[in-house]
Design brief:
This protein is mainly beta. The chain contains five helices and 22 strands.
């Protein structure tokens, strides 16, 4: 009898060979996980069915009636909370733009083989739930705890490692110390005023404003306080920046906050296959959204000539939603011919989208400027 193990279920990470097209496996991932149709940038709050989705393994059969969240480890009072107990706690609503860390991966060359995102892995929702720091305060975090580990109900195998999906945050961030990312972390049970849909983590998920989507653990069932940095697969192997000159097994740098990005709602109307946009000559109003996990976007620039020259667009301020995208608009005077339209964002820390690809082995954080081919006739 053939001897097999769970390691036979998946292959190591790799990059595509020169000229290699999208594989059947990547196509299967693309069929399971969908992005935001860019014309839906018109919505300030993304309808749940249009918000991007990435599911690492299976959507678990998670019913709200028997769901419980355990809080354990280095706490004074371990907790086991059902949804009714969580909903009885004070709740808040945060409007949060969420983006997949692999957004833009399929545009890299060589292409890291994984979920083949273009630029559409993003969405903005109103998430309602209990501030994480309230639950941790009720449990009483012991002083020797350094990280909170979040475990989802989704279970699978990746690169030969059988696992539940787990991620961690430093205790200070999780407990809401200071004014950084932790002050907005939610145990969310509601999306856009309705219970979470199954694909978005029903009945409970983590929301970590400003961080890429891998931190927002779905189908959340356990929080464990630990006294050493978590070294699970999704924390120390996956979701790391590893440059081309680094060994594949180098530790790299952790993927955390969202890099600045601006996206344009494509103008005019499209060809079905190529998605090339067609517009008529004359003034064309362009619009879209821009965001950054490092602070407000302070400038959006537009180019109608493939990035040779740039002009400033009008950017709306963040207003009452510090973790949500910002609208931008400008007018382009279209003349007959072929054009490549681009936009780029700069945030308050001076981070600007690059014109050349920021390559890394996992294909993470690729915020290369968007390029939209347009035919004016």
């Amino acid at each position: 009898m053939e001897q097999v193990s769970v390691q036979d279920a998946s292959a190591p990470a790799r990059t595509a060979a020169a000229g290699e097209g999208i594989s059947r496996e990547e196509l299967a991932l693309a069929a399971r996980n969908h992005g935001l149709p860019l014309e839906a940038l018109r919505y300030e709050v993304t309808p749940p069915g249009l918000h991007y989705v990435l599911v690492h393994y299976d959507i678990p059969a998670a019913g709200p009636d028997d769901w419980r969240l355990a809080v354990r480890g280095l706490v004074r009072t371990p907790l086991s909370l059902d949804l009714a107990a969580l909903r009885a706690l004070p709740s808040v609503t945060h409007r949060v733009t969420m983006e997949c860390a692999g957004n833009g991966r399929a545009l890299l060359s060589p292409r890291p083989v994984s979920q083949p995102w273009l630029t559409e892995a993003v969405g903005t929702a109103d998430w309602t739930g209990v501030p994480l720091h309230l639950v941790l305060a009720e449990a009483g975090v012991r002083p020797e705890a350094v990280e909170a580990v979040f475990t989802g109900a989704d279970h699978g195998v990746e690169r030969g490692v059988e696992q539940d999906y787990r991620r961690s945050l430093p205790v200070g961030a999780a407990a809401g110390e200071g004014s950084g990312e932790g002050s907005g972390v939610l145990l969310a049970h509601t999306m856009n005023g309705r219970p979470l849909p199954p694909q978005h983590g029903s009945p409970l998920r983590l929301v970590v404003p400003g961080w890429y989507g891998m931190a927002h653990v779905k189908w959340l069932r356990e929080i464990t306080l630990v006294d050493a940095p978590f070294t699970g697969f999704q924390q120390s192997v996956a979701y790391r920046y590893r440059r081309a000159d680094e060994a594949p097994d180098s530790p790299g740098e952790p993927v955390t906050r969202i890099e600045p990005r601006a996206l344009m709602a494509p103008p005019g109307f499209p060809d079905f296959m190529s998605r090339t946009r067609v517009v008529h000559p004359g003034p064309v109003r362009l619009h879209g959204r821009a965001w950054s996990g490092y602070g407000p976007v302070v400038r959006v620039e537009f180019s109608g000539d493939g990035g040779r020259t740039w002009t400033e667009a009008a950017v709306e301020p963040r207003g009452p939603h510090p973790w949500a995208w910002q609208a931008w608009t400008c007018v382009w005077e279209a003349v007959p011919g072929r054009h490549t339209l681009s936009v780029r964002a700069t945030d308050g820390e001076g981070r600007t989208q690059p014109l050349e690809q920021p390559w890394n082995r996992g294909g993470f954080g690729n915020n290369l400027v968007q390029r939209v081919p347009v035919l004016c006739c």
